[in-house]
Design a protein that fits this description.
The complex is a heterotrimer of chains A (273), B (132) and C (148). Chain A is of the alpha+beta class. Chain A has 2 domains: 112 residues, Ubiquitin-like (UB roll), CATH 3.10.20; 140 residues, Fumarate Reductase Iron-sulfur Protein, Chain B, domain 2. In chain A, 29% of the residues lie in helices and 18% in strands. Chain A has 11 helices and 9 strands. In chain A, the strands form 3 sheets. Chain A has a 5-stranded mixed sheet. In chain A, strands 6-7 form a two-stranded antiparallel ribbon. In chain A, strands 8-9 form a two-stranded antiparallel ribbon. The longest helix of chain A has 12 residues. The two termini of chain A are 44 Å apart. By secondary structure, chain B is mainly α. Chain B has a single domain, classed as Up-down Bundle (3 helical TM bundles of succinate and fumarate reductases), CATH 1.20.1300. Chain C has a single domain, classed as 3 helical TM bundles of succinate and fumarate reductases (Up-down Bundle), CATH 1.20.1300. Chain C is built from 6 helices and no strands. The chains are: A alpha+beta (273), B mainly alpha (132), C mainly alpha (148). Chains in contact: A-B, A-C, B-C. At the A-C interface, helix 6, helix 10 and helix 11 of A face helix 2, helix 3 and helix 5 of C.
């Protein structure tokens, strides 16, 4: 009871400037301003949902988990790409908060953007484990599990934490002008599979060795700066490039396959993903 | 423009271009020419600094320089290294600005021609000044 | 085709994105400066090759061209060139190492507050050293050209 009394006394208001545009109606864009009450723990997403509930239900936003796991609520907050659910109003220390759709993604409506191009680039990296062993797919010969040491896992684990929120794609200066550049997310995923000892594809370096490929990264570092999950795409891209320059030698030893016999799951405690 | 066609056209247009050099090879050349240029430009500046600045710009002093074969080699290598590095840099910037087959072909042709043109023009100066 | 291009480029940050380096820290400033100095140095280089070519037209042509460039503004321009080439060289060496994966740290298990390994102080101090070297070179150039 005591806490509530204190909180009510300290309730402050923030000005929320929200970008409004409906591409379907082609009626141009403008900003709507809302005065929203907030507390120490109120996130930008909470404030936007307050606007939707009590002020203007037509504001379009995309969100789901509210805990920085789904990567849906990416938007530019005061000009910098952030997850709305992961950004507290009190931490911004500004009297006005401007919410705009992520740059480099075509706008559909208000704060909702179209991720098709982003996902296409992701798909073009072949983001799945590829093995040369055809028997692996043949379940009649039993199933296999891969053995990976914790050191093997550490090589790619960080990059597999990517939630495809698109913040890095929005911050990247090359993506800002080059439609065919895969972007930090896709290139970091290319490294994620390249570094994975389960993957045996020989084509990974060729996929990105294009005039709009990995070489158009100039290490502006903005992707890593905005990443909410610590994926550090810039690191992945440079590590991949060090293989292409011949500085790092590709001495990857393919992960050992262990036959799994029925319920006797003999995976030697190897923790994969 | 309706929403659906807007969504459809977001499919990225991948252009498969046949090139003589792979991009990784071009970028290796970019790095090597960059590092080599630092050394030869440093030599060029140091050879100028052994005399007072005003004297280094005197006509006779410069003609004498152009007759010194080592200096000529340094100048020619600066010319080649910086032309290759600089025009490749411009090519990279221009490729990132727009994406279409016509633009990319134009960028390649223009930057390579400008590179060859500048090297030829600078070499002409070196040869003619050497003969003076 | 024009219609398609316009809509696919909808909401792209465009060239304004790289012209504004203020939002993302030192690495973005380094990227911005590396580009600006690169373009500036190429323009200077073309001008320099043209300028020095007047020597083949004899002493008079050379000296009349010198009069055009050996002015206060010409010297200030030259000081800019000295600064730009020093920064571009020093930062360029750092970037070559970076592109080769050197000095970035290794992948690990990210934890809150998720500070990226690649944006470390080795990188930042590389940028600062390039800036300090450029300032020192400009100071030296100023002394030589203006004889202070």
């Amino acid at each position: 009871m005591n806490n509530t009394a204190i909180d009510n006394k300290n309730e402050q208001k923030i000005t929320l400037k929200v970008y409004r545009e409906n591409r379907g109606q082609d009626s141009g864009s403008h900003h709507d301003t809302f005065e929203v009450p907030y507390k120490k723990w109120t996130t930008v997403l909470d404030a936007l949902l307050y606007v939707k509930s009590y002020m203007d239900p037509s504001v379009a936003i995309r969100y789901s988990c509210r805990m920085a796991s789904c990567g849906s609520c990416g938007m530019k907050i005061n000009g910098v790409p952030k997850l709305a659910c992961y950004t507290k109003i009190s931490e911004l220390e500004k009297s006005t908060i401007e919410c705009e759709p992520l740059s480099n993604f075509p706008i559909i409506r208000d704060l909702v953007t179209d991720f098709s191009r982003f996902f296409n680039h992701h798909k073009s990296m072949q983001p799945y484990i590829q093995t040369n062993d055809s028997t692996e797919a043949d379940t009649s010969k039993g199933t296999f599990s891969f053995y990976q040491s914790p050191e093997d896992v550490d090589k790619y684990l960080q990059f597999s934490y990517c939630i495809n929120c698109g913040l890095c794609y929005s911050a990247c200066p090359t993506v800002g002008t080059d439609l065919n550049f895969p972007g930090p997310q896709a290139l970091a995923q290319q490294y994620r599979y390249f570094a994975d000892t389960r993957d045996e594809s020989k084509k990974r370096l060729d996929i990105v060795d294009d005039r709009h490929g990995i070489w158009r990264c100039h290490f502006a570092g903005s992707c890593s700066k905005v990443c909410p999950k610590g994926v550090d795409p810039a690191l992945g891209i440079q590590l991949l490039r060090s293989y292409m320059l011949g500085i790092s030698k590709n001495d990857k030893v393919p992960a050992k396959k262990i036959e799994v016999n029925g319920n006797n799951n003999n995976n030697n405690g190897a923790d994969t993903e | 423009m309706d929403l659906m066609s807007c969504l459809e056209c977001n499919e990225s247009i991948k252009m498969v271009s046949r090139t003589i050099l792979k991009e990784s090879q071009i970028m290796k050349i970019h790095y090597i020419t960059g590092i080599a240029a630092i050394f030869v430009v440093a030599l060029h500046i140091m050879m100028r600094l052994v005399v007072p600045f005003e004297q280094s710009l005197e006509y006779e002093y410069i003609i004498a320089n152009y007759k010194n074969i080592i200096y000529v080699l340094i100048l020619e290598s600066i010319l080649v290294l910086i032309s290759v590095h600089g025009f490749n840099g411009i090519r990279i910037i221009l490729l990132e600005l727009r994406q279409s087959r016509a633009w990319e072909n134009m960028v390649t042709v223009v930057t390579i021609s400008a590179m060859i043109g500048l090297i030829a023009y600078g070499t002409r100066t070196i040869i003619l000044a050497n003969g003076l | 085709m024009k219609e398609i291009e316009r809509s696919t480029r909808n909401n792209l940050e465009g060239i304004g994105g790289w012209l504004n380096p203020s939002r993302y820290g030192w690495e973005r400033i380094s990227y911005w400066l590396q580009r600006l100095t690169g373009v500036f140095l190429l323009i200077y280089f073309i001008g320099h090759v043209y300028e020095t070519s007047t020597i083949v037209n004899g002493q008079n042509a050379w000296e009349s061209f010198l009069e055009l460039t050996q002015t206060v503004w010409g010297h200030l321009f030259l000081i800019m060139v000295i600064g730009a080439s020093t920064f571009h060289s020093a930062n360029g060496i750092r970037l070559i190492f970076t592109h080769a994966g050197i000095g970035l740290g290794t992948p690990g298990r990210p934890d809150y507050p998720y500070n990226p390994a690649s944006l470390n102080y080795r990188q930042k101090s590389g940028i600062w050293i390039a800036l300090i070297l450029a300032a020192a070179a400009m100071f030296y150039g100023f002394n030589v050209l203006f004889g202070v």
